[in-house]
């Protein structure tokens, strides 16, 4: 355990009605996207939820961030149950948990300047902006490796990696304790992925936030995660610290995921093959 317990999810379930299955005297059939997921996230820890598309990992992340209501189960932030919070009470959760989305361009308003984008969370929460809007934005842009003088530019003037840095700056504006990265690097080139991963690691070392990192690329996960939970069909089938899950996977699904990775750290791959041969 790295530090203070920040986020606790217990028995999360999310069901969606299946379109076209409801009738006058017949309730809609329900699809279970997440079926009883539990995990803890500590300060300074990066927990990666991994699995194939449709495994339920992104839905789990949105439940934890309270972007979706749970069907059943509980979400606790710093020991406080936030599962059913609404309105102003839910807005308070946003000061603790922020999300970095997969496609930066779809999450950044193309008509807003960088300054307006970065300060929007504070304005939404009716909080004072330390040092004023311009200086605050310049400081955050510098922290995420962007030119502070770009505060008057628009999203279309940036590359994908630069736009993702703006998204990270916006998330950091409220000083979150938990950062949820939902496939935050999957749409980027490999070299840019490495830059964003290094940035997240450096920021986490400075701020001490917990990071819930959603990904399907195990090569990316091994670079950033401290612990891993493997999901399939809406459930966690294996969880543990990164080296254990990568070096000695216990579940067949995890072994299949690892076998599909073109390259993996040689010592982990050698250990995994040796254990598999000994079974």
Tell me what portion of residues adopts beta-strand conformation. Answer: 15-25%
Number of strands: 10
Q: Which outline best applies?
A: globular
What proportion of the residues is helical, as a percent range?
Answer: 25-40%
What's the number of helices? 11
Straight-line N-to-C gap: 30 Å
Low-confidence segments, given as residue ranges, are: none
How does the major sheet shape up?
6 strands, mixed
Order of helices and strands: EEEHEEHEHHHHEHEHEEHHH
Quaternary structure annotation? single chain
Which strand order do you get reading across the main beta sheet? 6-7-8-3-9-10
Q: Mean pLDDT score, rounded?
A: 91
Q: Measured on Cα atoms, how large is the radius of gyration? A: 20 Å
SSE-based structural type: alpha/beta
Family: Belongs to the ABC transporter superfamily.
InterPro entries: AAA+_ATPase, ABC_transp_ATP-bind, ABC_transporter-like_ATP-bd, ABC_transporter-like_CS, Oligopep_ABC_C, P-loop_NTPase
Keywords: ATP-binding, Nucleotide-binding, Transport
Domain ABC transporter: 7-258
List keywords for this structure.
single chain; 279 residues; alpha/beta; six-stranded mixed sheet; four-stranded antiparallel sheet; 11 helices; 10 strands; 24% strand; globular; Oligopep_ABC_C; ABC transporter domain-containing protein
Describe the structure.
Belongs to the ABC transporter superfamily. Helices cover 38% and strands 24% of the residues. The chain has helices spanning 57-64, 87-94, 104-107, 114-124, 133-143, 160-172, 190-207, 218-224, 242-247, 252-259, 266-278, and strands at residues 5-17, 30-42, 46-50, 72-77, 80-81, 97-100, 178-182, 210-215, 227-232, 235-241. The strands form two sheets. Strands 6-7-8-3-9-10 form a six-stranded mixed beta sheet, sandwiched between helices. A four-stranded antiparallel beta sheet has the order 2-1-4-5. Helix 4 packs parallel to helix 6. The mean pLDDT is 91.
